[in-house]
């Protein structure tokens, strides 16, 4: 068995020429008695034999790598916005506001004066005036009605990208109806809450549903709505704060 295994080991572990492979197991065993024959065999093996590690050539497995990459199922890495990208977006918004036509910009800013003037006057005088607060809510209802009617004016022309269908025209009537209901509340706080809902719905319609509006108009609408809502909230906060102070002063005077 040992004589039969030696040729197999010789061919597997060494890349020897055909001449050396002629030395089979029995012949090597016969030559094993002669030290000189063993030394000659060792010299010939050292000159012609190569180890298995040297005979093997590692070839690049490009096709197999491509197949493995095809089955790559790692989770996608979501790219986070860098500070430079956020600054670029803010600059783009400011650029869009600068692109606004001057009549539209100045008239929109002028239309915000009644909203800002009411809480500012109350804060400067330190007195809450219910008449001024109701006038502010009334002006807000008129503004919401104007924003709703603006959708009709945008959808009615023949060359308009918005069709005069049920969706566009019905959405134009929702803000005025909500603003009209705000005038029926005796408490200004409830009226302000209803009015803010009407202004928020009108902003949602202009930003989301009508994507054909120019970017400068959308930025202008966002800025205007934020100023209106903050002014209404300031009036409600002054009402709660100043009325409490006035009631405390009355109690002190009575005592």
Walk me through what this model shows.
This is TMM69 protein. The protein is an all-alpha fold and 255 residues long. It has a domain of 134 residues. Helices cover 76% and strands 0% of the residues. The chain contains 13 helices and no strands. Helix 7 packs across helix 13, helix 10 runs parallel beside helix 12 and helix 12 runs antiparallel to helix 13. It is elongated and about 70 Å long. About 20% of the residues have low confidence.
Q: Structural class of the helix and strand makeup?
A: mainly alpha
Spatial shape: elongated
The helical percent reads: over 70%
Cα Rg: 44 Å
* Main pleated-sheet profile: none
List low-confidence stretches: 14-35, 49-61, 64-78
Total number of beta strands = 0
End-to-end Cα distance: 124 Å
User: What is the chain-wise order of helices and strands?
Assistant: HHHHHHHHHHHHH
Count of helical regions: 13
Chain-averaged pLDDT = 74
The proportion of residues in beta strands is: under 5%
